Automatic annotation (TrEMBL), chain A:
This is N-acetyltransferase domain-containing protein. One of its GO terms (cellular component) is NatB complex. Keywords: Acyltransferase, Transferase. Residues 2-160 form the N-acetyltransferase domain. It holds the Pfam family Acetyltransf_1. GO terms for molecular function: protein-N-terminal amino-acid acetyltransferase activity.
UniProtKB/TrEMBL annotation, chain B:
Residues 764-786 are annotated as: Disordered. GO terms for cellular component: NatB complex. InterPro entries: NAA25_NatB_aux_su (IPR019183), TPR-like_helical_dom_sf (IPR011990). This is Actin cytoskeleton organization protein. Belongs to the MDM20/NAA25 family.
């Protein structure tokens, strides 16, 4: 039970309980405003009845022609509100808007190859690995898990317009591209 | 532009982009030798100059280019960056305006003129520019710009309220001239609906929203749907909305709590809409309640443990029924709460969900307690979460009688035992995960803090620190534990440890605005700036970066949102900018920074003049308090002060009243010490003045406002701070007439400033003279000099009073920050006195104005201040030494004999004790030495 509402610029004053968690990065104001100034309908937040923020999603629409799609840039839920399917509800909304509003072919997201928990969550939501992007997280350096830590999976889920299911690839994990090839 | 010039300019642009301003200036100079009249090169040089802080030179060059009325894009763009750097936003507007008038058919120049206005929040002018753009270029986008600027002007704080409806009508009229319907884009639709809502044109709004396309937009755009809800509410269509919401919940499986709230609002509409409720309405409502109960119960059954909406809606329904006197079953809310706990007790948020509904008393309370007390298992992770929720709920309902030291101590032990028992569930987790037991330690710290509050025994705070440090080591990512530690370390006078934990939170960007209060509130109490240690000053500077990036970036996105036609975002962007620009925390930090600066730097006219101008700006601001206090958890019983309130140093949070009081102290002192009066300041000031606010005191003179002492401001001051305010007020009143008499006339001050600038840049700056006749020259020298008065009583007694407070506090009855507070404020009074008397230092001044007796009384006061401060310093240093020799390790360890675990052993505990002792020693000794140094520096 939570309020699903638009993410707004002034939420930057309220999101500490979410962003103080290690897994959530706090960016400069420009980051949030650049999304809100173009794709406000792909950014939404969940709020408890008490008014506390529970989580948020930030997305965009991009790509040319058959690659026109919705993209999940950031998705986060505060620790105390996990296991309540909040992430799924926000992703559902982003997919719905990408489908009905933007008429995109698919929705995609990037996830660290080592983040097994997130990967399986996205798989349950209908996403599958489309390709592996080399050194996507390169700037962060080599972590404990070596290459896997630097590489990202590009995971995709087809929308109604992708009738040929071109955004699903059976052997996506083996399909490797370099970070330069993706935007 | 010629290809050659283009090639020559490229390296200059690159140098500026990469911050190599020096080489950019050199390159510009080289090119200017060949083309001395080229505006673009001059503008680029001005930009490099302003970015290397060479303001005067940049200013001169910039004005030169502006005077030539440039109209080529490259020069305009370079100049607009220069002007932005100089804070001269109004000149940017004027510049583009002039350029566009020269080439009215240049659409881009028009759009730039619009942007310049939008960036500054100049909505009225922006609206006119947009209207002109629409007339000239027929693009519908410009029409919407003009419409939305009218709305923004209506909502602006500087607009008179009576003008609002006029502006909305104007917006409506403009919009009706549009060729394409507004539903063409969702954000145009938003603009249209906003106007209809404001003008209460409900039929039009309903028609738009009920259309097929209107419904589609609402389903894919939460912002519009939110606006739709507001419109439905405003026009009183609650029942209709309730039915729509029921349908969405039932047919589309929508579990947005907003839909449930709509059903609830509709259910009680019969009784809540009428001022006096007739029996008939009550009956109708009872019928609605029965139906709603059925509906929610069915949802609850279907969803099971998957979703909390149904059961919570039942609780909310019952709560509202009780408040309207329409509840049939007195036990209903209890039964619902218990079954809610049964179903969702293992969700971390269960406590937060239930809190609004469990304020039980009598039988319900005793049953509730008995029920919850059964949950003590930590066998599985689910059990553990359930137990934590039960403990939080039990704690929430504790009464004053149940908070005896014995019972609370038993509770603390219980929390910690369960914590140690439950630790097994987190053992295999990677260290990037939170430990499931963390909240038990948080509860333990709550109990210890209450124990300290009720008994006054500081050792309970030590115990809190020990368990929190232990838990923090186990759960390295728990920010909650660190927040509690930061609070308690400040109480214990161990600020360096608080700072360490704060840094581990990696607070950054906008978070510095909402969270830096954790370490910077009254930071001058702990800062060792008097010894040249700039740790806290640096923290202030770093935390203030966000305000700079706000002022450069946010307005840019307002413009971008106009170009992308995302009107719905613009009010929020504008509000965000305003909240950061006028953030209370920003200026609280600024005030702390000034206080620290004074202890560290030489008191001269540079410091005084610069701070005076800045503080006066701040004094005119209408502040927003963005500090996030909610982030500190609270599990204290419902009728007790929160954890944060309990652990606020000195029991007082500095807010706008505190800020206003300190601004008055410093503005007054700097005003007296400075040679700048308003007319001089106007001439010397570069950049725009802030827009006047409708609400701000407006017509009152600054001096009168500085003299005001509203009672509510004092509520935020400690007794020592109040004493400082009274001290500085008395000093200012006493010395004011002498300052005013001796201060050189404005014309002389300006001439001196002009001479200085000329020395710097090699030519006479413009506009540095006063209009004829405004300078009163030496006229006042004809008046008799003020009579020298004896120092006011309070100025002399202040230091005795502070000494007495200090001596009383030495007996150990207060927390150590209070000692530091007394000594740092005594030091501050001494420094303010130094600011106030600096003018009378030169022997020539004393001789000319026959101030011998006055200066003689300064000597007495200085001697008293210096002795007092030295004595305090000696005592504090003694205390620091003694404190570090107490074997606190043994004391620390002793408390935990009954609970030691394998890792939670005496070695760990004495390690914590050692760190606390060291941190305290460091700050005690530092403050003591600093005070001794200040007293020596300003003794004569």
């Amino acid at each position: 039970m939570s309020v699903l509402r638009p993410f707004r610029a002034t939420d930057l004053f309220k999101f500490n309980n979410i962003n103080l968690d290690i897994w959530t990065e706090t960016y400069g104001i420009s980051f949030y405003l650049s999304y809100l100034a173009r794709w406000p309908d792909l950014c939404c937040a969940q709020e408890a009845p008490s008014g506390r923020m529970m989580g948020y999603i930030i997305g965009k629409a991009e790509g040319q022609n058959l690659e026109w799609h919705g993209h999940i840039t950031a998705l986060t839920v505060a620790p105390e509100y996990r296991r309540l399917s909040l992430a799924r509800k926000m992703v559902d909304l982003l997919e719905y808007v990408s489908d009905k509003g933007y008429k995109g072919y698919f929705v995609d997201l990037y996830v660290r190859c080592t983040n097994a928990v997130a990967i399986s969550m996205y798989e349950r939501m209908g996403y599958s690995v489309y390709r592996r992007v080399r050194e996507y997280y390169g700037s962060l350096g080599m972590g404990r898990a070596g290459k896997d830590e630097e590489d990202a999976f590009d995971m995709r889920k087809p929308l109604s317009r992708d009738t040929g299911r071109r955004s699903v690839r059976a052997n996506g994990r083996e399909f490797i591209v370099s970070a330069h090839d993706v935007s | 532009m010629s290809a050659t010039l283009d090639r020559q300019l490229r390296p200059i642009y690159d140098a500026i982009d990469t911050g190599s301003n020096k080489s950019a200036i050199v390159a510009c100079n080289k090119l200017l030798k060949k083309q001395p009249k080229n505006d673009l090169i001059k503008a680029l040089k001005a930009l490099a100059l302003v970015r290397s802080q060479k303001v005067e030179e940049s200013l001169y060059l910039c004005d030169e280019v502006l005077a030539s009325k440039p109209s080529d894009e490259a020069t305009l763009s370079a100049l607009s960056h220069v002007l932005r750097g100089l804070g001269r936003h109004l000149d940017i507007i004027a510049m583009y305006d002039t350029a566009w008038k020269q080439q009215p058919s240049n659409e881009d120049l028009g759009a730039q003129t619009f942007s310049a206005n939008a960036r500054t929040g100049n909505w009225k002018a922006a609206q006119q520019v947009a209207t002109k753009l629409h007339k000239l270029f027929k693009d519908e986008r410009y029409l919407y710009w003009s419409v939305f600027c009218a709305i923004l002007q209506a909502n602006d704080a500087t607009t008179q309220p009576t003008l609002r409806p006029v502006l909305f009508k104007l917006a409506h009229r403009l919009l009706s001239s549009a060729q394409t319907p507004s539903f063409y884009s969702s954000d145009r639709f938003y603009v249209h609906l906003t106007i209809l809502k404001e003008l209460e044109l409900w039929d039009d709004a309903t028609a738009l929203l009920s259309s097929e396309i209107g419904q589609t937009i609402c389903s894919t755009n939460l912002t519009i749907d939110e606006l739709r809800r507001e419109i439905w509410k405003a026009k009183g269509s609650m029942k209709e909305e309730g039915e729509r919401a029921q349908q969405r919940v039932k047919e589309k499986d929508d579990r947005n709590w907003l839909e449930f709230l709509s059903v609830l609002d509709a259910t009680f509409w019969d009784v809540s809409s009428a001022p006096e409720t007739a029996e008939e309405a009550k009956d109708a409502c009872l019928h609605q309640i029965t139906k709603a109960v059925e509906f929610f119960a069915q949802i609850a059954d279907n969803d099971g443990a998957r979703d909390r909406s149904g059961p919570l809606a039942l609780l909310e329904l019952e709560k509202r029924a009780v408040s309207h006197g329409l509840s049939k079953d007195p036990d209903a809310i209890y039964t619902l709460a218990e079954s809610y706990f049964e179903r969702f007790g293992d969700k971390a948020c269960c406590f937060e969900d239930l809190v609004p509904y469990v304020q039980f008393s009598g039988d319900h309370l005793s049953n509730w307690i008995a029920y919850l007390e059964k949950h003590t298992s930590t066998a599985t992770p689910e059990d553990l979460r359930r137990t934590i929720n039960a403990l939080k709920l039990l704690r929430y309902n504790l009464t004053q009688e149940q908070l005896t030291p014995e019972l609370e101590a038993a509770r603390a032990t219980q929390y910690i035992r369960l914590y140690l028992d439950g630790m097994v569930h987190g053992q295999s987790l990677p260290d990037t995960e939170l430990q499931p037991v963390d909240d038990l330690v948080v509860l333990g710290a709550h109990a210890f803090v209450t124990l300290w509050k009720t008994t006054g025994d500081v050792s309970f705070l030590y115990r809190a620190v020990v368990i929190l440090e232990f838990a923090s080591g186990k759960s390295k990512q728990s920010y909650v534990i660190r927040l509690l530690l930061i609070q308690i370390y400040h109480l214990l006078g161990a600020p360096s440890l608080a700072l360490e934990h704060y840094r581990q939170l990696s607070v950054k960007q906008v978070q510095t605005d909402t969270l830096s209060y954790l370490i910077l509130s009254r930071a001058s109490t702990f800062a060792l700036s008097s010894l040249g240690d700039l740790t806290y000053s640096t923290e202030c500077m770093e935390a203030s970066q966000i305000y700079l990036s706000n002022s450069t970036d946010t307005a840019e996105f307002v413009v971008r949102a106009f170009f992308a036609e995302k009107y719905s975002q613009i009010p929020d962007f504008v509000y965000l900018e305003d909240r950061l620009d006028n953030s209370l925390q920003r200026d609280l930090m600024k005030m702390e920074h000034v206080r620290m600066r004074l202890a560290h730097e030489a008191i001269n006219s540079d410091l005084v003049d610069m701070e005076l101008i800045e503080l006066k700006f701040i004094f005119d601001r209408v502040h927003h308090d963005n500090r996030d206090f909610e982030v500190i958890p609270n599990y204290q019983p419902r009728d007790m002060p929160s954890f944060r309130e309990q652990t606020t140093p000195f029991g007082k949070v500095p807010g706008s009243g505190w800020l206003s009081s300190f601004l008055k102290i410093y503005i007054k002192a700097f005003q007296q010490a400075s040679d700048l009066d308003d007319s001089v300041e106007d001439k010397l000031l570069i950049g725009d003045r802030p827009k006047p606010h409708v609400e701000s005191a407006g017509t009152m003179l600054l001096d009168d406002r500085l003299a005001q002492r509203p009672r509510k401001d004092f509520e935020e001051l400690t007794p020592e701070e109040t004493a400082l305010l009274e001290f500085s007020t008395a000093v200012a009143e006493w010395l004011g007439p002498h300052h005013d008499y001796i201060r050189p006339p404005p014309a002389a001050v300006l001439a001196e400033a002009a001479r200085q600038t000329e020395l710097k840049i090699g030519h006479q700056p413009k506009g540095m003279t006063l209009p004829e006749g405004s300078s009163n020259g030496d006229a006042r020298k004809d008046i008799d000099p003020p009579v020298v008065q004896d120092p006011p009583e309070i100025v002399l007694t202040f230091f005795d009073d502070m000494k007495a407070r200090f001596t009383a506090a030495l007996d150990g009855s207060v927390l150590s920050p209070e000692l530091l507070h007394i000594i740092t404020l005594t030091q501050e009074a001494f420094l303010i006195f130094a600011v106030e008397t600096n003018r009378f230092k030169p022997a020539a001044v004393v001789k000319t104005h026959k101030l011998g007796p006055l200066v003689q009384s300064f000597k007495e006061i200085r001697a008293k201040a210096s002795t007092t401060l030295t004595e305090m310093s000696t005592e504090l240093e003694k205390l620091a030494k003694a404190d570090s020799q107490i074997n606190r390790q043994a004391e620390f360890v002793d408390h935990w004999k009954h609970i030691e675990g394998s890792e939670f052993n005496s070695e760990f505990i004495s390690g914590v004790a050692k760190k606390v002792t060291e941190s305290r020693h460091q700050v005690f000794e530092g403050i003591a030495k600093g005070a001794a140094k200040v007293s020596k520096t300003h003794a004569s």
